Amino acid sequence: MKRTFLLVALLAIFGSAFSAVSVYVVDNSKTIYSYTDVSGGGASTVTTALSFNGRGIDLYNGVLTVTIGDKRPQTWLNVNATTGSEVVISLGNCRMWASVVDQATGELYASMDNSNSYACRYADILGNSLVQATRDVEQGYDPGGDAAINGSKAFFTSYGGNSSGRYLWSLPLGFASGTVGVAEFDANPYGNSLSGIAFDGAGNVYLGVNNNSVIKLNSSFVYQSTIVTGLSNVKDVDFFGGELFVCNSLGVSVYSTAGAFSRTFGPTNATGLVIGGVAAPPTTVDFVCTVTLVDWNGASLPTVTVTVDGGTPVVKTLTGSGSSGTFTLSLTPVSHDIKVKAVKSLSQTVTGSGTTPAFFLQCGDTNDDNKIDDLDFLSVIGNFGSTDPVLKLIGDGNGDDKTDDLDFLNVIGKFGTSGT
Description:
By secondary structure, this protein is mainly β. Helices cover 8% and strands 41% of the residues. The chain folds into two domains: 2-275, Neuraminidase; 285-414, Immunoglobulin-like (Sandwich), CATH 2.60.40.4130. Strand 22 (243-248) and strand 23 (251-256) form a beta hairpin. The longest helix has 10 residues, at 374-383.
Protein backbone atom coordinates (compact mmCIF):
# COMPACT_ATOMS: atom_id res chain seq x y z
CA MET A 1 0.00 0.00 0.00
CA LYS A 2 2.79 2.45 0.66
CA ARG A 3 6.46 2.92 1.26
CA THR A 4 8.48 5.51 3.14
CA PHE A 5 9.45 8.33 0.78
CA LEU A 6 12.93 9.83 0.92
CA LEU A 7 11.88 13.46 1.02
CA VAL A 8 15.31 14.90 0.42
CA ALA A 9 15.63 13.01 -2.86
CA LEU A 10 12.14 14.01 -3.91
CA LEU A 11 12.85 17.64 -3.20
CA ALA A 12 15.99 17.42 -5.30
CA ILE A 13 13.94 16.07 -8.19
CA PHE A 14 10.74 18.08 -7.89
CA GLY A 15 11.67 21.17 -5.88
CA SER A 16 8.51 22.09 -4.00
CA ALA A 17 6.14 20.68 -6.63
CA PHE A 18 4.91 17.77 -4.56
CA SER A 19 1.57 17.83 -6.36
CA ALA A 20 3.10 16.61 -9.65
CA VAL A 21 2.49 12.93 -8.94
CA SER A 22 -0.13 10.33 -9.72
CA VAL A 23 -2.58 9.32 -7.01
CA TYR A 24 -4.64 6.13 -7.24
CA VAL A 25 -7.65 5.53 -4.99
CA VAL A 26 -9.78 2.39 -4.68
CA ASP A 27 -13.24 2.28 -3.12
CA ASN A 28 -15.89 -0.32 -2.34
CA SER A 29 -17.61 -0.04 -5.74
CA LYS A 30 -15.08 -2.03 -7.82
CA THR A 31 -13.56 1.20 -9.12
CA ILE A 32 -10.03 2.63 -9.24
CA TYR A 33 -9.73 6.40 -9.61
CA SER A 34 -6.63 8.31 -10.65
CA TYR A 35 -5.60 11.92 -10.04
CA THR A 36 -2.75 13.86 -11.58
CA ASP A 37 -1.82 15.59 -8.33
CA VAL A 38 -2.33 15.33 -4.58
CA SER A 39 -4.90 18.11 -4.57
CA GLY A 40 -7.29 15.75 -6.35
CA GLY A 41 -6.91 17.46 -9.72
CA GLY A 42 -7.03 15.72 -13.08
CA ALA A 43 -9.54 13.13 -11.92
CA SER A 44 -10.16 10.15 -14.17
CA THR A 45 -11.05 6.48 -13.86
CA VAL A 46 -8.63 3.61 -14.41
CA THR A 47 -11.39 1.01 -14.31
CA THR A 48 -14.96 0.65 -13.05
CA ALA A 49 -15.07 -3.11 -13.52
CA LEU A 50 -12.88 -4.76 -10.90
CA SER A 51 -13.86 -8.36 -10.24
CA PHE A 52 -14.22 -7.57 -6.52
CA ASN A 53 -14.40 -4.59 -4.19
CA GLY A 54 -10.91 -3.34 -3.42
CA ARG A 55 -9.53 -3.20 0.12
CA GLY A 56 -6.03 -1.79 -0.41
CA ILE A 57 -3.82 -0.72 -3.31
CA ASP A 58 -0.14 -0.39 -4.18
CA LEU A 59 1.76 0.63 -7.32
CA TYR A 60 4.76 -1.22 -8.71
CA ASN A 61 6.23 0.24 -11.89
CA GLY A 62 2.99 0.84 -13.71
CA VAL A 63 1.01 -2.09 -12.26
CA LEU A 64 -1.55 -1.59 -9.47
CA THR A 65 -1.85 -4.42 -6.94
CA VAL A 66 -5.29 -4.43 -5.28
CA THR A 67 -6.11 -6.54 -2.22
CA ILE A 68 -9.63 -7.84 -1.67
CA GLY A 69 -9.84 -8.52 2.09
CA ASP A 70 -13.01 -10.46 2.69
CA LYS A 71 -12.79 -12.59 -0.46
CA ARG A 72 -11.77 -16.23 -0.30
CA PRO A 73 -9.65 -17.83 -1.57
CA GLN A 74 -6.46 -15.81 -1.17
CA THR A 75 -6.95 -13.26 -3.92
CA TRP A 76 -5.52 -10.05 -5.22
CA LEU A 77 -5.80 -8.16 -8.47
CA ASN A 78 -3.13 -6.74 -10.74
CA VAL A 79 -4.33 -3.86 -12.89
CA ASN A 80 -2.41 -2.05 -15.61
CA ALA A 81 -2.46 1.59 -14.46
CA THR A 82 -2.66 2.79 -18.06
CA THR A 83 -5.08 0.38 -19.74
CA GLY A 84 -7.12 -0.82 -16.74
CA SER A 85 -6.74 -4.48 -17.79
CA GLU A 86 -6.99 -6.85 -14.83
CA VAL A 87 -5.44 -10.14 -13.73
CA VAL A 88 -6.95 -12.06 -10.80
CA ILE A 89 -4.33 -13.84 -8.69
CA SER A 90 -5.96 -16.59 -6.62
CA LEU A 91 -3.92 -18.91 -4.40
CA GLY A 92 -5.05 -21.00 -1.44
CA ASN A 93 -8.03 -20.97 0.88
CA CYS A 94 -7.47 -17.83 2.92
CA ARG A 95 -8.01 -14.08 2.73
CA MET A 96 -5.45 -11.43 1.84
CA TRP A 97 -6.15 -8.28 3.79
CA ALA A 98 -3.24 -6.00 3.06
CA SER A 99 -0.13 -6.03 0.91
CA VAL A 100 2.84 -3.88 -0.02
CA VAL A 101 5.45 -4.27 -2.76
CA ASP A 102 9.13 -3.81 -2.01
CA GLN A 103 10.11 -1.35 -4.73
CA ALA A 104 13.75 -2.49 -4.59
CA THR A 105 13.12 -6.19 -5.19
CA GLY A 106 9.56 -6.49 -6.51
CA GLU A 107 8.64 -8.86 -3.67
CA LEU A 108 5.06 -8.67 -2.38
CA TYR A 109 4.45 -8.82 1.39
CA ALA A 110 0.92 -9.60 2.56
CA SER A 111 -1.10 -10.32 5.67
CA MET A 112 -3.45 -13.28 5.52
CA ASP A 113 -5.89 -15.17 7.63
CA ASN A 114 -7.78 -18.44 7.59
CA SER A 115 -8.07 -19.95 11.08
CA ASN A 116 -4.95 -18.03 12.08
CA SER A 117 -3.40 -14.78 10.94
CA TYR A 118 0.05 -14.71 9.42
CA ALA A 119 2.18 -12.98 6.80
CA CYS A 120 3.53 -14.14 3.47
CA ARG A 121 6.03 -12.90 0.96
CA TYR A 122 6.09 -13.67 -2.73
CA ALA A 123 8.91 -13.27 -5.23
CA ASP A 124 6.74 -11.07 -7.43
CA ILE A 125 3.25 -9.64 -7.87
CA LEU A 126 2.20 -12.75 -9.82
CA GLY A 127 2.31 -14.80 -6.62
CA ASN A 128 5.38 -16.92 -7.31
CA SER A 129 7.65 -18.53 -4.67
CA LEU A 130 5.59 -18.31 -1.48
CA VAL A 131 7.38 -17.94 1.88
CA GLN A 132 5.09 -18.03 4.92
CA ALA A 133 5.81 -16.61 8.37
CA THR A 134 4.10 -18.01 11.45
CA ARG A 135 0.97 -16.39 12.79
CA ASP A 136 1.39 -12.99 14.36
CA VAL A 137 1.24 -12.07 18.03
CA GLU A 138 -2.56 -12.01 18.05
CA GLN A 139 -2.93 -15.74 17.71
CA GLY A 140 -5.36 -15.71 14.87
CA TYR A 141 -7.30 -12.49 15.02
CA ASP A 142 -7.89 -10.54 11.79
CA PRO A 143 -4.55 -9.21 10.57
CA GLY A 144 -6.51 -6.92 8.35
CA GLY A 145 -5.52 -3.32 8.54
CA ASP A 146 -2.64 -2.23 6.39
CA ALA A 147 0.90 -3.04 5.29
CA ALA A 148 3.93 -0.80 4.78
CA ILE A 149 7.68 -1.07 4.32
CA ASN A 150 10.05 1.11 6.33
CA GLY A 151 13.78 0.56 6.41
CA SER A 152 14.52 -3.17 6.57
CA LYS A 153 11.10 -4.28 7.86
CA ALA A 154 7.60 -4.95 6.61
CA PHE A 155 4.94 -3.65 9.02
CA PHE A 156 1.34 -4.77 9.45
CA THR A 157 -1.56 -3.46 11.49
CA SER A 158 -4.17 -5.74 13.03
CA TYR A 159 -7.80 -4.92 12.54
CA GLY A 160 -10.56 -6.36 14.67
CA GLY A 161 -13.92 -5.67 16.20
CA ASN A 162 -12.69 -5.94 19.77
CA SER A 163 -9.56 -5.40 21.84
CA SER A 164 -7.70 -8.20 20.02
CA GLY A 165 -7.21 -6.05 16.94
CA ARG A 166 -4.75 -3.60 18.38
CA TYR A 167 -1.19 -4.43 17.35
CA LEU A 168 1.39 -2.96 15.03
CA TRP A 169 3.73 -5.81 14.18
CA SER A 170 6.69 -6.36 11.90
CA LEU A 171 8.80 -8.91 10.04
CA PRO A 172 12.24 -8.43 8.50
CA LEU A 173 12.36 -8.06 4.73
CA GLY A 174 13.30 -11.33 3.12
CA PHE A 175 12.12 -13.29 6.17
CA ALA A 176 12.53 -17.06 6.17
CA SER A 177 9.69 -19.55 6.46
CA GLY A 178 8.39 -19.81 10.01
CA THR A 179 9.65 -16.42 11.18
CA VAL A 180 7.52 -15.06 14.04
CA GLY A 181 6.08 -11.55 13.82
CA VAL A 182 7.26 -9.02 16.41
CA ALA A 183 4.78 -6.78 18.23
CA GLU A 184 6.09 -3.22 17.92
CA PHE A 185 3.14 -1.39 19.51
CA ASP A 186 0.07 -2.31 21.55
CA ALA A 187 -2.60 0.35 20.98
CA ASN A 188 -4.34 -0.35 24.28
CA PRO A 189 -5.54 1.95 25.89
CA TYR A 190 -5.47 4.35 22.93
CA GLY A 191 -7.74 2.21 20.77
CA ASN A 192 -8.04 -0.96 18.77
CA SER A 193 -9.00 -2.02 15.27
CA LEU A 194 -5.83 -0.59 13.74
CA SER A 195 -6.15 0.21 10.06
CA GLY A 196 -3.83 2.47 8.08
CA ILE A 197 -0.12 2.88 8.76
CA ALA A 198 2.23 5.58 7.43
CA PHE A 199 5.84 6.58 8.09
CA ASP A 200 6.90 10.17 7.49
CA GLY A 201 10.62 9.60 6.87
CA ALA A 202 11.50 11.57 9.99
CA GLY A 203 10.92 8.72 12.44
CA ASN A 204 7.22 9.28 13.17
CA VAL A 205 4.49 6.70 12.63
CA TYR A 206 0.79 7.37 12.03
CA LEU A 207 -1.89 4.76 12.68
CA GLY A 208 -5.60 4.65 12.02
CA VAL A 209 -7.45 3.47 15.15
CA ASN A 210 -11.03 2.70 16.17
CA ASN A 211 -12.16 3.32 12.56
CA ASN A 212 -12.42 7.02 13.37
CA SER A 213 -9.06 8.47 14.45
CA VAL A 214 -5.36 8.77 13.63
CA ILE A 215 -2.68 8.60 16.30
CA LYS A 216 1.02 9.51 16.16
CA LEU A 217 3.93 7.40 17.47
CA ASN A 218 7.60 8.28 17.66
CA SER A 219 10.44 6.24 16.14
CA SER A 220 10.46 3.95 19.21
CA PHE A 221 6.74 3.22 18.63
CA VAL A 222 5.70 5.16 21.72
CA TYR A 223 2.35 6.97 21.63
CA GLN A 224 2.65 10.75 21.24
CA SER A 225 -0.80 12.14 20.49
CA THR A 226 -4.15 11.68 18.80
CA ILE A 227 -4.08 14.08 15.87
CA VAL A 228 -7.30 13.33 13.93
CA THR A 229 -10.73 12.41 15.32
CA GLY A 230 -14.34 12.40 14.23
CA LEU A 231 -14.02 10.36 11.02
CA SER A 232 -15.70 7.07 10.19
CA ASN A 233 -14.51 3.99 8.34
CA VAL A 234 -10.83 4.92 8.41
CA LYS A 235 -9.20 2.30 6.16
CA ASP A 236 -5.85 3.64 5.01
CA VAL A 237 -3.32 6.32 5.95
CA ASP A 238 -0.53 7.56 3.70
CA PHE A 239 2.09 10.30 3.98
CA PHE A 240 3.42 12.52 1.22
CA GLY A 241 4.91 16.00 1.02
CA GLY A 242 4.37 16.81 4.68
CA GLU A 243 0.69 15.80 4.64
CA LEU A 244 -1.38 12.84 5.82
CA PHE A 245 -3.92 11.29 3.47
CA VAL A 246 -6.68 9.39 5.27
CA CYS A 247 -9.14 7.13 3.43
CA ASN A 248 -12.52 7.22 5.15
CA SER A 249 -16.26 7.37 4.45
CA LEU A 250 -16.01 10.95 3.13
CA GLY A 251 -13.24 10.15 0.64
CA VAL A 252 -9.55 11.00 1.01
CA SER A 253 -9.21 13.60 3.77
CA VAL A 254 -5.90 15.46 3.96
CA TYR A 255 -4.35 16.84 7.16
CA SER A 256 -1.11 18.35 8.34
CA THR A 257 0.96 16.16 10.63
CA ALA A 258 -0.34 18.29 13.49
CA GLY A 259 -3.92 17.38 12.58
CA ALA A 260 -5.03 20.56 10.79
CA PHE A 261 -7.61 19.75 8.11
CA SER A 262 -6.75 20.78 4.55
CA ARG A 263 -9.14 19.22 2.01
CA THR A 264 -11.07 16.14 0.93
CA PHE A 265 -11.11 14.62 -2.55
CA GLY A 266 -11.88 11.32 -4.21
CA PRO A 267 -14.79 8.90 -3.92
CA THR A 268 -16.82 8.39 -0.77
CA ASN A 269 -15.99 5.22 1.16
CA ALA A 270 -12.40 5.23 -0.09
CA THR A 271 -10.63 2.10 1.15
CA GLY A 272 -7.07 2.53 -0.08
CA LEU A 273 -4.73 4.88 -1.90
CA VAL A 274 -1.20 4.99 -3.23
CA ILE A 275 0.77 8.02 -4.31
CA GLY A 276 2.83 7.05 -7.30
CA GLY A 277 5.68 9.54 -7.47
CA VAL A 278 7.65 9.56 -10.70
CA ALA A 279 6.04 7.38 -13.34
CA ALA A 280 8.42 4.53 -14.14
CA PRO A 281 8.40 2.32 -17.21
CA PRO A 282 6.23 -0.72 -16.46
CA THR A 283 8.21 -3.70 -15.26
CA THR A 284 8.21 -6.37 -17.94
CA VAL A 285 8.52 -10.13 -17.93
CA ASP A 286 9.25 -12.49 -20.80
CA PHE A 287 6.24 -14.10 -22.47
CA VAL A 288 7.67 -17.14 -24.29
CA CYS A 289 5.15 -17.92 -27.02
CA THR A 290 5.00 -21.31 -28.74
CA VAL A 291 3.61 -21.49 -32.27
CA THR A 292 2.60 -24.73 -33.97
CA LEU A 293 1.67 -24.52 -37.65
CA VAL A 294 -0.87 -27.29 -38.14
CA ASP A 295 -0.26 -29.16 -41.46
CA TRP A 296 2.83 -27.10 -42.32
CA ASN A 297 5.25 -28.88 -44.69
CA GLY A 298 7.68 -26.09 -45.43
CA ALA A 299 11.44 -26.62 -45.37
CA SER A 300 11.77 -23.88 -42.77
CA LEU A 301 9.52 -21.97 -40.40
CA PRO A 302 8.01 -18.70 -41.63
CA THR A 303 8.08 -15.44 -39.69
CA VAL A 304 4.94 -14.51 -37.75
CA THR A 305 3.14 -11.20 -37.39
CA VAL A 306 2.29 -10.41 -33.77
CA THR A 307 -0.20 -7.85 -32.48
CA VAL A 308 -0.47 -7.12 -28.73
CA ASP A 309 -3.59 -5.45 -27.32
CA GLY A 310 -4.59 -4.10 -30.74
CA GLY A 311 -1.32 -2.20 -31.14
CA THR A 312 1.10 -1.98 -34.05
CA PRO A 313 1.88 -5.39 -35.60
CA VAL A 314 5.50 -6.56 -35.35
CA VAL A 315 7.26 -9.37 -37.19
CA LYS A 316 8.90 -12.10 -35.13
CA THR A 317 11.23 -14.92 -36.18
CA LEU A 318 10.40 -18.38 -34.88
CA THR A 319 13.14 -20.39 -33.21
CA GLY A 320 12.58 -24.08 -33.76
CA SER A 321 12.25 -26.74 -36.45
CA GLY A 322 9.64 -28.73 -38.29
CA SER A 323 6.26 -27.14 -37.74
CA SER A 324 6.82 -25.63 -34.28
CA GLY A 325 8.86 -22.73 -32.90
CA THR A 326 8.96 -20.03 -30.25
CA PHE A 327 9.37 -16.29 -29.97
CA THR A 328 9.60 -13.99 -26.94
CA LEU A 329 7.75 -10.80 -25.99
CA SER A 330 8.64 -8.47 -23.12
CA LEU A 331 5.32 -7.39 -21.59
CA THR A 332 3.96 -6.09 -18.31
CA PRO A 333 2.75 -8.92 -16.01
CA VAL A 334 -0.96 -8.35 -16.62
CA SER A 335 -3.51 -9.78 -19.04
CA HIS A 336 -2.84 -9.22 -22.74
CA ASP A 337 -4.53 -10.03 -26.05
CA ILE A 338 -1.80 -11.54 -28.25
CA LYS A 339 -2.67 -12.17 -31.89
CA VAL A 340 -0.34 -14.25 -34.09
CA LYS A 341 -0.52 -14.88 -37.84
CA ALA A 342 1.84 -16.66 -40.22
CA VAL A 343 1.80 -16.76 -43.99
CA LYS A 344 -0.74 -19.23 -45.44
CA SER A 345 -2.34 -19.72 -42.02
CA LEU A 346 -5.26 -18.45 -39.95
CA SER A 347 -4.50 -16.10 -37.09
CA GLN A 348 -5.15 -16.98 -33.46
CA THR A 349 -5.60 -14.64 -30.48
CA VAL A 350 -4.77 -15.81 -26.96
CA THR A 351 -5.92 -13.72 -23.98
CA GLY A 352 -4.43 -13.99 -20.50
CA SER A 353 -1.51 -13.29 -18.19
CA GLY A 354 0.20 -16.66 -18.55
CA THR A 355 3.79 -16.21 -19.66
CA THR A 356 3.88 -19.31 -21.91
CA PRO A 357 0.94 -18.89 -24.32
CA ALA A 358 0.55 -21.51 -27.05
CA PHE A 359 -0.76 -20.85 -30.56
CA PHE A 360 -1.99 -23.42 -33.08
CA LEU A 361 -2.19 -21.82 -36.51
CA GLN A 362 -4.22 -23.72 -39.09
CA CYS A 363 -2.56 -23.78 -42.52
CA GLY A 364 -4.56 -23.66 -45.75
CA ASP A 365 -5.23 -19.94 -46.18
CA THR A 366 -3.73 -19.73 -49.67
CA ASN A 367 -4.54 -16.05 -50.27
CA ASP A 368 -3.83 -14.84 -46.69
CA ASP A 369 -7.23 -13.21 -46.14
CA ASN A 370 -7.51 -14.99 -42.75
CA LYS A 371 -10.27 -17.37 -43.81
CA ILE A 372 -10.51 -20.62 -45.72
CA ASP A 373 -13.33 -20.38 -48.23
CA ASP A 374 -14.25 -20.74 -51.88
CA LEU A 375 -11.41 -18.44 -52.98
CA ASP A 376 -8.87 -20.80 -51.45
CA PHE A 377 -10.64 -23.79 -53.00
CA LEU A 378 -10.57 -22.19 -56.46
CA SER A 379 -6.92 -21.26 -55.97
CA VAL A 380 -6.02 -24.88 -55.29
CA ILE A 381 -8.15 -26.27 -58.12
CA GLY A 382 -6.93 -23.67 -60.62
CA ASN A 383 -3.24 -24.28 -59.91
CA PHE A 384 -3.32 -27.96 -59.01
CA GLY A 385 -0.20 -29.75 -60.19
CA SER A 386 1.25 -26.66 -61.88
CA THR A 387 5.00 -26.58 -62.44
CA ASP A 388 5.05 -22.88 -63.23
CA PRO A 389 7.31 -21.25 -60.62
CA VAL A 390 4.71 -18.58 -59.87
CA LEU A 391 1.41 -20.40 -60.29
CA LYS A 392 2.39 -23.41 -58.21
CA LEU A 393 2.85 -21.11 -55.21
CA ILE A 394 -0.56 -19.45 -55.52
CA GLY A 395 -2.45 -22.55 -54.45
CA ASP A 396 0.17 -23.65 -51.94
CA GLY A 397 -1.37 -23.55 -48.46
CA ASN A 398 1.22 -25.51 -46.48
CA GLY A 399 4.58 -24.00 -47.45
CA ASP A 400 6.00 -26.88 -49.53
CA ASP A 401 6.19 -24.73 -52.71
CA LYS A 402 3.65 -26.74 -54.72
CA THR A 403 -0.08 -27.12 -55.13
CA ASP A 404 -1.11 -30.73 -54.70
CA ASP A 405 -3.46 -33.10 -52.94
CA LEU A 406 -2.26 -31.98 -49.48
CA ASP A 407 -3.43 -28.46 -50.22
CA PHE A 408 -6.72 -29.79 -51.53
CA LEU A 409 -7.31 -31.83 -48.36
CA ASN A 410 -6.34 -28.84 -46.22
CA VAL A 411 -8.96 -26.62 -47.85
CA ILE A 412 -11.68 -29.27 -47.80
CA GLY A 413 -11.02 -30.18 -44.15
CA LYS A 414 -10.95 -26.59 -42.91
CA PHE A 415 -13.47 -25.02 -45.28
CA GLY A 416 -15.51 -22.25 -43.64
CA THR A 417 -13.07 -21.52 -40.81
CA SER A 418 -11.46 -18.16 -40.13
CA GLY A 419 -8.83 -16.63 -37.84
CA THR A 420 -9.46 -15.07 -34.44
